[in-house]
Amino acid sequence: MLSGMDLDSTTRVIDDTLRLSKCVLIVRLYLEDDDAINAEAFINEASFLVSNSQHEVLNLQYKVCYARILDLKRKFLDAALRYYDISQVEKRQIGDELIDEEALEQALSAAVTTYKHIFTVVAVETNCSNGDIVIAQSRVGTLPSGISSFSMEITNACARGCSISNLHLKCSMFASAVLVNPKIFKHQDVDDCLVNGGSPLTAGFTISFKYANSFQYPLSLASATCD
């Protein structure tokens, strides 16, 4: 069975593109049975490979699988945004492979359908704005292992004195080679990190920590509540 293959075997060298293709294939097979739990395990592995992948077809297949998993996990807003992003692909041919127009139309249709499934999405309320959450990152050094170290600061810059709680960031498959205090920053799920344990950040307060990874994670605001 494909899912039983050891893609990290030390007895043989497996090209990253081959590893990515196997992961994506396994994910697609699990998704045929709407099995998001097992599919997520392999999409997580694929996420570490896709950032360096130049194989556009595989990258597109990864995005489709990722959106489908979010859909099955009822993360409807994130899924809708990713379906829409897929539908906007401009290329109609990648290498020797044609992009099916019908597949792009299906992705756009999925975006609309998924968006309609949203019953409640916690959003930043009107007395706050997205700009009140300031996210700053910088590379601060290198670990002895050669992995880069990054400094992260998340600040409530609300000039109206509002506190912000239940702060979630879009964080992809966030992982760190050094321990990050989960009370400060916790990777909860696919593309979902909780800041400060959900407790309020008062105006002017900054959460700071360091993490280590081979690349800097693109982080952005997902949702928050004004108190």
From TrEMBL:
This is COP9 signalosome complex subunit 4. InterPro entries: PSMD12-CSN4-like_N (IPR054559), TPD1 (IPR040361). The keyword Transferase does not apply. The keyword Protein transport does not apply. Keywords: Signal. Pfam families: PSMD12-CSN4_N (PF22241), TPD1_C (PF24068). It comes from the Eukaryota. Residues 2-90 form the PSMD12/CSN4-like N-terminal domain.
